[in-house]
Amino acid sequence: MTTSPSTTTAPLTVREIHDGWTVRAVGGPVPEPLRDLLDGTTAVPAGVPGTVHTDLLAAGLIPDPYLDDHEALLKWVGHCSWEYRTTFDWTAGGADRHDLAFDGVDTVAVVRLNGTVVARTENMHRRYRLDVTDLLRVGANELVVELASPVREADARSLALGYRPQVNHHPFNALRKAAYNYGWDWGIDAATVGLWRPVRLESWSTARLTGVRVLPGAERAADGTWDGTLDVHVDAGRAPGVDGGDLRVDVVVTGHGTTLGATGAVTDASGVVRLRVPDVAVWWPRGYGDQPLYDVEVTLAAPATADAPGAADAHAPGDGLDRWTGRTGFRSVRLDTTPDADGTPFTIVVNDRPVWVKGANWIPDDEFLPRVTRERLAARIGQAVTANVNLLRVWGGGVYESDDFYDLCDERGVLTWQDFPFACAAYAEDEPLWSEVEAEARDNVARLSPHPSLVLWNGSNENVWGHRTWGWVKRLDGRTWGLGYYEDLLPRVVAELDGTRPYTPSSPWSGDLPIRADVFPNDPAHGSMHSWEVWNRQDWPHYRDTVPRFMAEFGWQGPPTWSTLTRAVSDDPLTPESPGMQVHQKAASGNDKLTDGLLAHLPLPDDMADWHWAMSWNQATAVQVAVEHLRSWTPRCQGSVVWQLNDCWPVTSWAAVDGDGRAKPLLHALAHAHADRLVTVQPRSADGGEPLGDGTDGLAVVVVNDTDDAWSGEVVVRRLGLDGGELAATTTAVNVAARGAATLLPGADVSTPADAGAELLVADFGGVRGLWFFAEPRDSALAAPRLETTVLPAADGVVVRVTAVNLVRDLTLLVDKVVPDAVVDDMLVTLLPGESVDLHVTLPAGTTVDPAALVAPDVLRSLNQLVGPA
């Protein structure tokens, strides 16, 4: 190898540049009391990673954007341009090359080092690396990043590129920035600015790793074991003056009793190392097996020379120039879209096994992304696991999620699908947008490649459907709208840099690529489907009208938990229509849809606490009805991905976890509907073969077994009065295959009520119960709840033991009303007369609680309270 005389084999060193930053406005409508920010007389300390909003909030210069109508007060922030500035000391060392690395710049920026422009950025979704070797000074160095107004920049670029339709009041589709930052039908309009991911100085000599792609695979061997394959692709950059010769890359894989290594050459700029791992420990989704992970270390080294110490040892210590470490898991994945008698399936197959997806859509967990820590992600993914979720879909109006997010999903066995950041809009395919999209796609496909949880790349959210049905064709007037990304650029990048995971062009999607004009992109018989007619224009029993092959989006709104709501909104009086409540309801006609969707089931309460409970119950019930319906049609339907798991601020929305991280009743409804073993009562035709919305023409009991063991026994179906008295019964022996379902028709005597408002159907099988109420709650004879309660101490809190004297429907302990950060282990429990339940309440350390408060009528709620007389 020929090198310049100054080249060394010293390893790459990293210095974070996160300290000493300040921020000030350099243009735009700064309010008069804060004008010092504009002329620079006030230095505001800035956090990096961070955003301007969080910097101003930490300095006490603005109110919390999430409270009351502060959103409107703070819109000026996104209309301003901002300057981040810091200095750092530097001393020349032995390295030949020095790079400034920015992992996330939000968004349009000019970067200057010591007065010289070193970069102009315009993409929040990619990383930047800048050679500053010739600009560094011994001693103090000044680094300045000037960020343009995200609102004005989007407007200007929309004019430059030409109008494209979108669903917002800002043209977010003209800029490669997270769309949700400009507001959504659940999101705050607080367009962010800042250095949102780490900044560092990297110093190196000879060569460094510019990219590492780790692509694990697994194949079943003849003896039933699995053999793993690990392809490690590396790209390397060379320091100036380094000519010719090959670099060496060493790969070591460790885990589960295995340590394997291999070495390959990096010729010119790239190299590939392949390792075979016999009898590998296979990674499985949760519910299907374990999640073994292997450590991978990739070392870039200069080949030892004959007279160098350790030249005889290919892995001699001290010869590493750069090193990458990570984890991966071995598994195979494919998407089955082979046409069948029912249309086109959409089945995710992991390790040759179809997976019934019990999913939830994931949005960014905060408007201000640097606040989303690993601990916060762990809590949120833990809540998904509590809800028996096995897949999170990272929605395309957000970001490519962090390595922490994917690490945690790898560990918990939660499958992930990652949308490319295109959502609900037409996108120009012109420069400079095309090149920016390619750069971000290459960056993130490579970055996320090691993660076994990632099983699907998806090109866009609703854009193909939108183009077909939302009036875009006329408005576009011949302009490009993004199809070139979805059918050409993105699948080409995925094939080149990944090749181990399936790709779809959009969600929903009919299963064809290229996209066919003769197949509607949201046809329930073909591919994935989104269902929004039910929420927008129909009542939730209509979920049962359709049997999709895969439901990728559907949902129902509900308010945040009481403690979150009353923290965020200080209206007095607090009502569904009070000013702060309306600010925290972003859906078009959202409150009207909440009301319309409730009245068929319950009278509209006039009391605010009752309204809150009624809407929370209706949200949970609507989604549980949908999920149980979808699961009852396995294997014709192979998945349900509810909109949505989480929120980015405190708001009335479709989320199961509110913006303060508290579980709404919906989370527990999902846990019930996603249970591995499910007994559900469903409307069916007389032969059990067709869905029927309201059950007036027939009922079936469907037993769903999403485990690896057969489920055998007797299903007991009873028609009961609300007093618990048995009116009719039948017993049927059943054997449900592993990962299968069985449909039982109990017969007219059992399934036909004499008095619909005073009767219910109860199906019990192996300790699992399904219920069917023949009448809507408002038309039923449900009486006020009569409960016997005891509060018992427990190691980490208390146990609330509840016995029902009469039938109590959907008993729910709204424990956050008493202790905001307390957590209860279950909600929405229906008790027949004489039955009991223990509700385990986990309390923050050192917290005491008044037992009487936990069982007060406004805390220990039931559906009965919204129907029966007080």
TrEMBL record:
Residues 40-197 form the Beta-mannosidase-like galactose-binding domain. The keyword Hydrolase applies. It is an enzyme of class 3 (hydrolase). One of its GO terms (biological process) is carbohydrate metabolic process. It catalyses: Hydrolysis of terminal, non-reducing beta-D-mannose residues in beta-D-mannosides. GO terms for molecular function: beta-mannosidase activity. Signal peptide: none annotated. This is beta-mannosidase. InterPro entries: Beta-gal/glucu_dom_sf, Beta-mannosidase-like_N2, Beta-mannosidase_GH2, Galactose-bd-like_sf, GH, Ig-like_fold. Its EC number is 3.2.1.25. Keywords: Glycosidase, Hydrolase. The keyword Hydrolase applies. Gene3D superfamilies: Galactose-binding domain-like, Glycosidases, Immunoglobulins. It holds the Pfam family Glyco_hydro_2_N2. It comes from Isoptericola dokdonensis DS-3. The lineage of its organism: Bacteria, Bacillati, Actinomycetota, Actinomycetes, Micrococcales.
